[in-house]
Amino acid sequence: xxxxxxxxxxxxxxxxxxxxxxxxxxxxxxxxxxxxxxxxxxxxxxxxxxxxxxxxxxxxxxxxxxxxxxxxxxxxxxxxxxxxxxxxxxxxxxxxxxxxxxxxxxxxxxxxxxxxxxxxxxxxxxxxxxxxxxxxxxxxxxxxxxxxxxxxxxxxxxxxxxxxxxxxxxxxxxxxxxxxx
Length: 181
What we know:
This protein has 181 residues and is of the alpha/beta class. 32% of the residues lie in helices and 24% in strands. It is built from five helices and six strands, in the order H-H-E-H-E-H-E-E-H-E-E.
């Protein structure tokens, strides 16, 4: 999604509100992805497509040493800045995820999170290549996207989450199996 088509204005406001309490963002995708992330204590994390900053604050609360958020929408970045407050271990950047992440160094992150944004992009391979480039050897990439049936019109299908394993391809793990509450 190019910066000029990012969730701005009323659409960005709606998205930020929905991401806070909506069933897929708040109660399906985020808990699953954070579970897959495991112990993040002391890690340097990139949140590509950070939206309103929900992952950022949760990752910091769970002990991430530093989180860098990248988002194309100025509206959503405003929400992220408000959510993050004056946390000096968080850096936020407005950047078009259709473009390379040239401002980030090679091998500089332990964990890269791309939550519910990959399906919005045309340059998907490029973003994954950039995630690989910025991951340290042995780092982890977490990607989630909506289920394809979400395009069928009902909007009832939720996102799926996948842990891709280490940067060097040492394995994969399936998403956690839902349990009854």
